[in-house]
Amino acid sequence: MSERKSPFDETSANDSNTNSDIHESNGVGFKWLIPIARSFKLSEGNLFLLLAIIIGIFSGMAVVCFRISIEWVRLALLGSALSPLHIRVLLVPAGVGLVVAFLVQKFFLAARGSGVNQTKAAVYVFDGYVPFRTVIGKFLTCSIAIGGGQSLGPEDPSLQMGAGIASAIGRRLKLSRDKLRLLAPVGAAAGLAAAFNAPISAVLFVIEEVIGTWSASALGAIILAAVSSAVVMRSFLGGEPMFRVPAYTLAHPAELIAYAVLGVVSGLLSLAFTKIIVTFRPMLRSLPEWTCYLQPAAAGLLIGLVGLKVPQSLGTGYPYIDQALHSQYTWQILAILGFAKILTTSLSFVSGTPGGMFAPTLFIGAMIGGAIGGLEHQFFPQVSASVAPFALVGMGTFFAGFMRVPITSVFMVVETTGSYSIVLPVMISNTIAYLISRRYQDASLFDILAKQDNMELPSMEEQREQIVLRVEDAFRQPNFPPLQASDTLARAMEVANVSPEDCLLVRFPTGRWAGIARKDLPEIAAKYPKESQLREVLPTARLPILHPDQRLDDALRFIQGHQLLPVIGRAGSRKLEGVISLPDILAAYQKAS
Amino acid sequence: MILLALLFVVTAALARSYHAREEELAKVWAERGNKDLSSGKPATALEDYRNSLSYAPDNPDVQLHLAEALLADGRLTEARSYLANLWDHTPGSGKVNLDLARVSMRMGDSDQAVQYFRGAILGSWEGDSAFQRRQARLELSEFLLDKRRLDEAKAVITGIAMDTPSENGPVHEENGHLFLRVGDPVLALAEFESALQTDPHNIEWLKEAAQVAFEDGNYSKAEIYFSRAVQENSTDDLRASLALVRDILRNDPFLPGLSEDEQARRTWLDFQQGLDRLHKCMATGASSSSSSHASTDLDSLAKESQELQKRVNLSSLQSDPELRKEAMQFVSRTEDLTSQICGPPTGIDKALRLLKKQQEVLNP
Predict the structure, then answer these.
(1) In chain A, what percentage of residues exceed pLDDT 90?
(2) Which A residues in the span 296-325 are in contact with B, Cβ-Cβ below 8 Å?
(3) In A7-141, which ranges are E strands?
(4) Cβ contact, residue pair B47, A65, below 8 Å
(5) Which residues in A lie closer than 8 A to residue B29 (C-beta atoms)?
(6) pLDDT digits over A164-184, tens only?
(7) Under CATH, to which class is A7-237 assigned?
(8) Which residue ranges make up each domain of chain A?
(9) Percent of chain A beyond pLDDT 70?
(10) Which homologous superfamily is A255-463 in?
């Protein structure tokens, strides 16, 4: 990877330059970018944003094709009715299980799983490299599996396909390793945005789950890619929100209690769902390798058996979410649908069938939410509204508990439904579910799955919640007031005699600081008269200054070569808040660990 | 660039063909649903409509049909929830309101049903909105009649009548029947008369107007409509009814515009007829009647007649309006009692018995 030559690297010597000097031989197939970059005098950063838009367009169109192909497969294999014929329900999921298992084992081994962890691995392990073969494999196997009734969704595969497309474009342009790493999440956001018709949620999910930080260098590109991808998707498949929801108004503040109950139940059920998956997945993986050819088929057969009674539990289940949102089911039926989907999705996922967890999670959440709402409405009609808002909130709540992405889950509900009025109950319910899930399950699902796959991917949740040590955690008060630049050398020697510090800090009227090491004082005193002012005798080099809110990691970097650094307040007076030395920093780290 | 263009073309072609397929499937399933619903298979229709909506979720017609299928299948809770959601989006839709009213009606929520009926009446309709609103009002009036909420029903029917175009005779006729059901023959007669203004020779409407007027004791109008009916179609029944009405009018001493002498003369004749009926009944009916109570009543009436006979004569009746009233009350009681004991009256006696009803109408 390191030998790749990047057009961006070539211009990096002078950031203000345009890309007029992009090498002509770069990026076969993307040569047309070069005249554009030259004509518009695009800088490196701007060209990267342009590339993000291009990735968004490619990913958007790929996801449109992917979604349509899933539907075509469904129509061909299961028919156009929501409740297919029994014989098809029984045989098709098992049949596609066989086909998909063969394709995965023989040709597309990397297409297994949902795609989220694979994308994370691409970013953190494989330098942003996602083989294009994986994109093709994901497209084919997921279309067949999901279209054939396996209980999985197209979102996570779309995310991985987006990352794969971005990676392929980056490789085509011979981008550097750093840029390739940056491109994978850009493509992931584009893929997810198109699959979900929800660019904000896609951006947030990629930040919350894939890259873990609000990196300024990536954020702009991720947003542009997600937006362009969503625009492309909407232009082909329509701009309506994914779910049509009835109007919602909070009738009474007490209704929020009902949503809190939903949060508790969803939190516990999402926990149970996670436990089922993380328990049975390694069990099936430990079976002999030849069983991998049969596991998806066996899962498909069991799914078919469930589907005979509950056909709603096949496939993505989106039409049924719509029905739940329009109160077409009683709470008993909603509960049955929710539990059936937990069962079928667990079967599909643990058997290694390629496909995503987003859609099933939303389905389960909507059904469980609706069931809780219906139950509460039956017993406390004065407190709880109709079933529909509960189904709506339930989607986000279960998602928050299961995926452990609390911010994404809130925006996802708002975005996929176009309903902002629901945000208050969503926030309450999601937070409760998330906290319950965290309380009883240390790591998130994706982190556990990564460990099961022998990968030590960084846990975004842990990263987010790591204690960040700051300068204020390590600095101490100075033993003596600092010297002024107008003080004499004699004064400095007096202070040095009584101060325990090995270094004296000197403040200049300009606000700059300098340091005199105690060991250097005799040498200086030999050169200059004792009445000399310190500004005349001190070297021109100035000390770096720190602020209390800066990260201790920064302080560690700045302290190199200095015995003591001043810590200055950010307010106008620029008061000396304290001093910090290397032993102080190390002591703070030791204390924190 | 070529790759991008190629992908665009492929995607566009795929999307277009898929949309076309979606439209086709939505249509096919909706048609299948309509067929199933009309052939009395609401459960199958329900699935058909759901299939259709999975391809065209915003089709309002199919949404409504789905609700109607739910309703027809007796899945009232689901139907109500579904319709309530539709109502959230289109609160002014007459059809949605009407379906919600039907669901509420079947679920026994009368007040809610009335509220939605009113929404349907005031709501917007596609096509012939006047007809649809009238149908909604008719359903509401039927519902109120079933619930014996007669005053409210009458108000709704009055609204229907007010909005009925004057040239629409059959609708006026229907209105007339509705008024009869809320117990208002006066307004019913007015509606039948309105109907007759559009077609004065309609024999059915003439008979209905005559009958309503007759039963309401408005014999003058009954005579008019019976005679016109006889002119149009002279049947035995009609002629008998006309003869009866004419007997009533001929023997009624209290008809407006009669002189004192004529009133006295008619009262005198009626009184004599009553006496005759009483004596005949005492001679035949009392012996055949097993009830001693009836016999006692007849005896008591006979005693009263003897007392009255002393005071009633043509000249006393001419001079004393109160005596005329007293004599006619006796006649009325006699006809009532004898009809109970000796069987239904015929001829003049029947007319005299019906005179009482006329008096109630004229002097309520």
Answers:
(1) 38
(2) 319, 322-323
(3) none
(4) no
(5) 80-81
(6) 999 999 888 888 888 888 888
(7) mainly alpha
(8) 7-237, 255-463, 471-592
(9) 88
(10) Clc chloride channel (1.10.3080.10)
